[in-house]
Design brief:
The chain has helices at 19-25, 30-36, 51-60, 65-70, 88-96, 113-127, 198-220, 237-245, 253-266, 268-271, 280-291, 329-337, 344-352; strands at 3-11, 15-18, 41-44, 71-77, 103-107, 132-141, 154-164, 169-179, 185-186, 195-196, 229-232, 300-307, 311-319, 340-341, 362-363, 373-379, 382-387. By secondary structure, it is an alpha+beta fold. It folds into 2 domains: 3-168 and 327-387, Peroxisomal Thiolase, Chain A, domain 1 (3-Layer(aba) Sandwich), CATH 3.40.47; 170-322, Peroxisomal Thiolase, Chain A, domain 1, CATH 3.40.47.10. The chain has a 9-stranded mixed sheet with strand order 5-4-6-7-1-8-13-12-11, with helices on both faces. Helix 1 packs antiparallel against helix 2 and helix 9 crosses helix 11 (280-291). The longest helix has 23 residues, at 198-220. Residues 2-165 form the Hydroxymethylglutaryl-coenzyme A synthase N-terminal domain.
Length: 388
């Protein structure tokens, strides 16, 4: 049975800060951000957007009423959970009006959560071929103002419908994965900001890639020449290139040129959004599919997922006939073009706006937020959501 990505959508907040201007404000050479880590803009989540609303808005743009009836499993991958008990997916399930006879769970393993969701979805569909599964990867990356990780923040969500006989990409049989208990990045339950050992995390990202790549080749008998492109989890866009360069010598000059060119295309959306943790790999895939109009059906795309702490996985997909007809290019183009730049001082003010943690009631002004689904406030320790 062929199982894979039938639909894919994306959402990011309407506000962003220019990385050149942030660098100047931090007394850093702008090239360190734009070239050194490869970031141009960083999405800013206003207080009226959280991981729930980002995910709901991403899915809203791709789901039909028929999809909502067919979906019987909602899997929400995030490391920005809003509740230690209730799944963020349950809120999304309600906001989107999905079939009530569905399972809904939240997956957590750093940036790997959405990939775990896809693998779980594949098993469910193998047993229930008529089912559709909604997999969400939604996060707000926060490290703090004037911190080493500040330039790798971001906000956004990717939504995917996984099904049998998918219209966009069939996920192939073989997959290679690895787990090791390390402390390269973590966020204790008492902190709203992450902690990271940046140099160690970069080293582990590349080490994990090396190991799962070798394992994948052994399982599949495929080589570098068999790939049209490889997409990476992108905490920042230069990170994936560092990993890709470790295997380029396995191919010809033609292979190198093709893979590097497609890699650059795959980073364009991430370059203008920033790090969205669980959604970053799939935003990279979306960027490749929507911006490279010459990518042919039948092409094999490699996917490297990495979640600090750490779990890594390499798997592949084959693009389906007429896959471009099932993308939402115009919608995503409009999303990017309609965003508003904020100054560094405005960004800092927005960053410091946080929700109360003492049970206080709060009503938020959602009139300035153009999103269809917003967080409207808190009452009795409950988040209140509005679908306009």
């Amino acid at each position: 049975m062929n199982i894979g990505i039938d639909k894919i959508g994306f959402y990011t907040p309407h506000l962003y800060v220019d990385m050149n201007k942030l660098a100047v404000a931090r007394d850093i050479e702008p090239e360190k951000f734009t070239i050194g880590i490869g970031q141009e803009k960083m999405a800013i989540a206003p207080i009226t957007q959280d991981p729930v609303t980002l995910a709901a808005n991403a899915a809203l743009g791709i789901l039909t009423e028929a999809d909502k009836e067919k979906i019987d499993f909602v899997i929400f991958g995030t490391e920005s959970g809003i509740d230690n008990s209730k799944s963020a997916g349950v809120y999304v399930h309600n906001l989107l009006g999905i079939n009530p006879h569905a399972r809904t769970v939240e997956m957590k393993q750093a940036c790997y959560g959405a990939t775990a969701g896809i693998q779980l979805a594949k098993g469910h569909i193998a047993l229930n071929p008529e089912s559709k599964v909604l997999v969400l990867g939604s996060d707000i990356a926060r490290y703090g103002l004037n911190t080493a990780g500040e330039s790798t923040q971001g906000a956004g969500a990717v939504a995917m419908v996984i099904s049998a006989n998918p219209k966009i990409m069939v996920l192939e049989e073989h997959s290679a994965y690895l787990t090791n208990d390390i402390m390269d990045f973590w966020r204790p339950v008492y902190s709203d900001k992450a902690f990271v050992d940046g140099k160690f995390s970069n080293e582990q990202y590349i080490l994990f890639f090396s190991k799962v790549w070798e394992q994948y080749k052994a399982k599949s008998s495929l080589e570098l020449k068999d790939f049209e492109a490889i997409c990476y989890h992108l905490p920042y866009t230069k990170m994936g290139l560092k990993a890709l360069r470790t295997i380029l010598d396995e191919g010809t000059e033609v292979d190198k040129e093709r893979l590097v060119a497609n890699y650059q295309v795959s980073t364009q959306y991430n370059r203008n959004v920033g790090n969205i943790y669980t959604g970053s790999l799939y935003l990279s895939l979306l960027s490749l599919l929507e911006l490279n109009e010459d990518l042919e059906a039948g092409s094999r795309v490699g996917l490297y997922s990495y979640g600090s702490g750490a779990v890594g996985e390499f798997f592949t997909g084959i693009l389906q006939p007429d896959y471009r007809e099932h993308l939402h290019v115009n919608h995503h183009t409009h999303l990017f073009e309609s965003r508003t730049e904020v100054t560094v001082s405005e960004y800092e003010k927005l960053f410091e706006e946080t929700l109360p943690v003492d049970g206080s009631t709060l009503e938020l002004d959602i009139t300035k937020d153009p999103a269809a689904i917003c967080l409207s406030g808190i009452e009795d320790n409950k988040r209140l959501y509005v679908k306009k």
